[in-house]
Amino acid sequence: MNNLKLEAVLNKLLSPHLIKDYCPNGLQVEGKAEVKKIVTGVTACQALIDRAIEEKADALVVHHGFFWKGEAAEIRGMKFRRIKALMDNGINLYAYHLPLDVHSEIGNNAQLAKLLGFDVLGGLEADNPKSVAIHGQLEEPLTGEELAARIAMTLHREPLHIGDNAPAEIKTVGWCTGGGQDFIELAAQKGLDAFISGEVSERTTHIARELGIHYFGAGHHATERYGVKALGEWLVQEHQFDVTFIDIDNPV
């Protein structure tokens, strides 16, 4: 498939034009015109780029790409080495940030819900049809310790669990993969029993304790593996691409 047609296909699926984001979504670095072999991964770090080169990929599709709002504009140092490696090898870089978080089927939040056995009820921000955070319910109530164990087993990472003053059983839960910890107050205001995010801040502990809600910090990378992986699987099923998902370890 032509690289610009592939961008159009991805844009049609993920609708980045409907979401205000902190970076450009779509084709960020242009490579060879014809795309057959695709590598997917969470972040366009040097290690993932090197693996894409080893795989002789024509394209790299990621959740965390380049050119973030507020970052230095100069292409030098680490950014230069990454972009040069892509360009020297003709690899197209496609990145989808918030559009890949919020997609109702293959998005990071939807995939996390599927993995953890949550029934999705809707966006946590009631007035935002593209709410990044969502909420739902468990099929059967769990204790905080039981939900922590489920998260650990599913994501292969022990979560941080703050359960002081929280309900004995968890029936309702809100979540936002990645850096969504500040939605915890909204989750508490809505009367949810628990909230899960990838990252945690110092203030999150105090908020959870004082508002009486379970909090689980499950890891930014750990909670965001699954959207881009699902996107790659969709490209295989719908467009017969050769796709390989590569997970570059990240404990954060």
From TrEMBL:
<dbReference type="InterPro" id="IPR002678">
    <property type="entry name" value="DUF34/NIF3"/>
</dbReference>
<dbReference type="InterPro" id="IPR036069">
    <property type="entry name" value="DUF34/NIF3_sf"/>
</dbReference>
<keyword id="KW-0479">Metal-binding</keyword>
<dbReference type="Pfam" id="PF01784">
    <property type="entry name" value="DUF34_NIF3"/>
</dbReference>
<protein>
    <submittedName>
        <fullName>Nif3-like dinuclear metal center hexameric protein</fullName>
    </submittedName>
</protein>
<comment type="similarity">
    <text>Belongs to the GTP cyclohydrolase I type 2/NIF3 family.</text>
</comment>
